[in-house]
Write a structure and sequence with these properties.
alpha/beta; D-Maltodextrin-Binding Protein, domain 2; 8-stranded mixed beta sheet; two-stranded parallel ribbon; 11 helices; 10 strands; about 40% helix; about 15% strand
């Protein structure tokens, strides 16, 4: 989505696909058209913007021009915090968000961004499904209508030295996105003192040797060209980056209930389809990285894997009661059928 620590990376991690279904005969629109101002940092020509343009054309045709999007692509509306401010004053109606935006609206949703929380896609999908109504109601209380989860994907560690165990991190110069408590706590728990930097400063820091270890989705590492400065990728995901598409209630509350319901249903359908595409592209991007010379390390041994999962335990405990209530973390563990240690 937009500029976001751990949760998203510019240009690639924007999963804010807006979509409407054809309106049924039972849905009546008012005389005024619903022109939805939608912000995204996804550039024109990207997978997400191709979806956006196709869906916009479809809905305009099927509603005879009464419903459509005015899309502000390529980050022209600003980063997540800029867009959030504009949504609150009615300049923008909808957008995709991830960690930084979530943290400003609803900090507790970042429980889903904890390191080493999920083991596979099945667990991710299960928690999203089970927790959707809860978070939707929480967002609603904050003045936002939750439309759908937006897949950003798994985030991996890239480094100049091989990382096979947690102890290997201590000798590395690790970047952490400035201002993100999850990144700071995660790398501190791994025995290193992370170097906080803005995303715009990472490439220069890699080039000068100020840092030698970064984290990004594989697709993000390619787009940002960070793979040219690193030799290894840890195949064990550091975290799963969760995003969502939100609409300002100042706009959604003006829509007929039946229309809003259709919007939500179609967002969910569209985002589910896009998730499959994004996951496929993530796998393909790993192959591209390998062909470019990046070595993808095998999963850690069973004993070393347990040490990585202990990092999760430390971070989850440290942030409980600060970023999210302990009861919420326990609820997530309950869905995963995983005891809290």
């Amino acid at each position: 989505m937009m500029k976001t620590p751990v949760s998203a990376f510019p240009l690639l991690l924007v999963l804010s696909v807006a979509c409407f279904s054809p309106l049924s005969a039972g849905v009546s629109l008012g005389a005024e058209p619903y022109s939805i101002k939608f912000a995204t940092v996804a550039p024109e020509g990207s997978t997400w913007m191709n979806h956006m343009r196709e869906l916009d054309r479809s809905i305009r045709e099927k509603t005879k021009g009464q419903v459509g999007f005015r899309i502000y692509a390529g980050g022209v509306a600003g980063d997540e915090l800029d867009v959030l401010k504009k949504m609150r004053i009615g300049q923008i109606h909808g957008a995709g968000f991830s960690g930084v935006g979530f943290g400003q609206i609803l900090p507790s949703v970042r429980v889903l961004d904890l390191p080493f929380l999920f083991r596979d896609d099945r667990e991710i999908d299960l928690v999203h499904k089970e927790m959707e109504d809860y978070f939707a109601s929480q967002f609603r209380e904050k003045g936002f209508e939750f439309l759908a989860w937006a897949e950003v994907g798994n985030v991996n560690i890239f480094s100049r030295s091989a990382i096979q165990k947690v102890g290997d991190m201590a000798r590395l110069k690790v970047w952490a996105w400035s201002g993100d408590p999850i990144a700071k706590e995660t790398f501190s728990a791994m025995g290193t003192n992370p170097i906080p930097l803005a995303i715009a400063d990472v490439t220069t820091a890699l080039n000068t040797g100020m840092i030698d270890t970064v984290y990004a989705p594989p697709l993000g590492a390619l787009a940002l060209q960070w793979h040219h400065y690193t030799k290894f990728m840890v195949s064990l995901p550091l975290a799963h980056s969760t995003g969502a598409v939100l609409m300002a209630r100042s706009f959604s509350d003006r829509m007929p209930p039946e229309l809003l319901r259709l919007v939500k249903e179609e967002f969910r359908r569209s985002m589910n389809a896009l998730t499959l595409e994004v996951r496929k592209q993530a796998l393909e991007s790993v192959g591209v990285l390998e062909r470019s010379g990046v070595r993808v390390l095998a999963l850690p041994s069973e004993a070393d894997l347990k040490d990585f999962y202990k990092v999760h335990d430390k971070v989850a405990e440290e942030l409980s009661g600060k970023m999210y209530p302990k009861e919420l973390l326990d609820r997530v563990y309950g869905i995963l059928k995983r005891p809290r240690r």
